[in-house]
Give the backbone structure.
Amino acid sequence: MTDADDLRRRTAALLAAHPPGTTGRPEFLRARFDAGLAWVHFPEGLGGLGAPRALQAVADAELAAAGAPDNEPRRIGIGLGMAAPTILHHGTEEQKRRFLRPLWTGEEVWCQLFSEPGAGSDLAALGTRAVRRGDAWIVDGQKVWTSSAHLARWALLLARTDRDAPKHRGITYFLCDMTDPGVEVRPLRQITGEAEFNEVFLTGVRIPDTHRLGEAGDGWRVARTTLDNERVAIGGTRLPREGGMIGPVARTWRERPGLRTHDLHQRLLGLWVEAEVARLAAERLSQGLAAGRPGPEGAATKLGFARLNQEISGLEVELLGAEGLLYDDWTMRRPELVDFTGRDAGYRYLRSKGNSIEGGTSEILLNIVAERVLGLPAEPRTDKDAAWKDLAR
């Protein structure tokens, strides 16, 4: 049985065999994965040791103290937070061994081809089509709001494989190579001036059947694993006190007393307390993951994340007055990550508007909380059992 002392011994052995000062980042990360210190709760041979998830913090602390490189988790968040748990739960042994190692080391970036122009909040209405041709599937369609598609080697793809089945039952889940012929990525410029999002056009893209995840027609069940993990990854990030958006506005308040008013003080106090409650709730959710897969509770943390970010950034702009209306750079860029705390107040205010849309709109998440957490009656759905091809579009 792996315990904290055993993890420390394994970590010491890794550092002795691959000193961070003389070992390149990719080589060190590959060695860490092979030593089972990537995700300690994953099975042996897949980056883990089959240990309790809570022990990950022991390995992380030992490696950080030794100056070991990390895998830049903010840059590869979709792979770590969404692709990895989905592949682990639904993938074949061959798929797990092919994809998990380069995913964790950051050598292969992932994106998510789910939303479409006509299927955003109602994701199950998606129309991108995959047709079986021998040992492969031919995919045609369009996806939108795809973060990191301009950087990604692989994508999590949902496509319709049965137009005669009800919309939730005619979907299949694929792993799509973004370098294949027929995949075209176009930037979507946002209100921030940047284009971290993209639209993706798929024209005659050939996906081998070995890159199907789960059974044909069972893609919605597989997608639920991805979506549950996505909400936890967005809203359940573990932070120190005053981490995240509340940090910059709290620092401004302390360092610039001339900006203070009684009204702003009362609002800041309320939001500070809410941010601390949200932080502790996210910590509790992270600890609860040790008991199994994430559940619908992640929808609640993501809801709180979106609302708080928008309210806190709005307060910060008001606190700064005319200075808060400034914006540092409107240059069109295609960034590798979203940097909320490293930019100015204007960026935080504009970028946070997307928080209530990305990762599941707030309206849809409210339904999930109502139905799957609180057990309230589901909304009437007249299209639930109708064939997808017969639905109004």
In short: The chain has eleven helices and eight strands. The mean pLDDT is 92.
